[in-house]
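Collaborator request, handled under Task 6.
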Amino acid sequence: QLACLQHVVAENTIVNMPTGTGKTLVAVLTIDHFRSTGKAIFLVPTRPLVNQQAEYVRKNCTKPIAVTELQGAKMDHLSAGEWQDLVNANDVLVGTAEVFR
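Structure tokens returned to the collaborator:
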């Protein structure tokens, strides 16, 4: 995981690891590393994982962090201004790729 983190913070990286080997931990450590310079979008493959991963991020970042879960039909009807408000109010946006289309 630490070797993976070193690679991730050095350049754009897609992390492909088996289930249960620490991908989410690598993501949280990466978020911690870059949080002073930007925002994070955390993509998950299924809706049930949205809440689970958002909670993991909240519990495992080293400092309090603003995380929001993006899911459901209401996301289809957000205006550009409402999207911008979500981005401004949060450090991490967690959702499926469908939400960010």
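The cover message to the collaborator said: "The chain has a mean pLDDT of 91. Strands lie at 40-44, 67-70, 92-96. Please let us know whether this matches your experimental observations."
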